[in-house]
Write a structure and sequence with these properties.
Layout: H1 4-22, E1 28-33, E2 39-45, E3 53-57, H2 68-76, E4 80-84, H3 100-107, H4 115-132, E5 141-146, H5 148-160, E6 165-169, E7 174-175, E8 178-179, H6 181-185, E9 192-195, H7 201-213, E10 217-220, H8 234-247
Parallel strand pairs: 3-4, 3-5, 5-6, 6-9, 9-10
Antiparallel strand pairs: 1-2, 2-4, 7-8
């Protein structure tokens, strides 16, 4: 006869094994070249048939891994994801040291024609990789950016107007001379989601301004305190999935 204690232990073991299976996530390691020859590295999971793909760009001095919580949620729902290390960052760094100091030194001064500005075209390289190598339709791609990554993604969306929508976590009016006011005016009816917490003063003030300019933007400020992907908790992750699903 099986005791209650043994039954409880067996159930607990099943739960542990189930949780281990749930986190067994093995994305494909990918790389692609930019127009000026930079090799950018990322991870990719293909979408289920007829589901969109989200292209993700991290914040300054961070890496693609900051998007793992959202990437895993999306792939569980059948969506595709591509997150990559920006030029000078993480595995895309041309040196062994991807510290903030090294990144600033490598990218140089901001402004027109700078490596900072080229980050916008790098999103295009990622989109070309998706459409070319992975046969992902351009019209099925969403963008998601955090901090300076939000500014970069918004500017690319404004230039091409070919993506389905954009999620902006803690955007700024100006990060390293990548500005957003004019860009958000050019997104037209494209769905734009802006997320910032009021404690993050510059990002919040910038988000209020951007939301007031756009006719199609949704602004969430009732989120966890933090900057960029630091705001990602279970509540926000679930709300983001609902927003993506609504706008696909």
């Amino acid at each position: 006869m099986i005791s209650k204690r043994m039954t409880g232990a067996f159930i607990a073991l099943l739960l542990i094994n189930s949780s281990l299976l749930a986190v067994d996530w093995n994305p494909e390691k990918v790389q692609f070249k930019t127009r000026d020859g930079e090799m950018l590295k990322g991870f990719f999971v293909a979408a289920q048939p007829h589901e969109p793909t989200v292209l993700m760009l991290h914040g300054l001095a961070s890496s693609k891994e900051e998007w793992l919580p959202l990437a895993k949620k999306l792939t569980e729902a059948g969506w595709g994801v591509l997150a990559y290390d920006a030029r000078g960052h993480g595995e895309s760094s041309q040196t062994r040291n991807a510290s903030a100091q090294d990144i600033y030194k490598y990218l140089g001064a901001p402004g027109p024609g700078s490596r900072w500005e080229r980050m916008i075209d790098d999103v295009g390289a990622a989109a070309r990789f998706l459409s070319g190598s992975k046969k992902v339709s351009r019209s099925s791609i969403f963008l998601a950016g955090a901090s300076i990554g939000a500014n970069v993604c918004l500017n690319f969306a404004a230039l091409t107007r070919s993506v389905k929508g954009v999620v902006l976590l803690s955007p700024g009016l100006d990060y390293r001379s990548i500005r957003t006011e004019e860009a958000i005016q050019k997104t037209g009816k494209m769905p734009v989601l802006i997320v910032a917490n009021s404690k993050d003063q510059y990002a919040y003030a910038s988000s209020v301004q951007l939301a007031s300019i756009s006719k199609s933007a949704t602004f969430w400020s009732d989120v966890k305190v933090g900057h960029g992907t630091q705001m990602l908790d279970d509540d926000l992750l679930n709300r983001l999935l609902q927003w993506f699903d609504k706008n696909k």
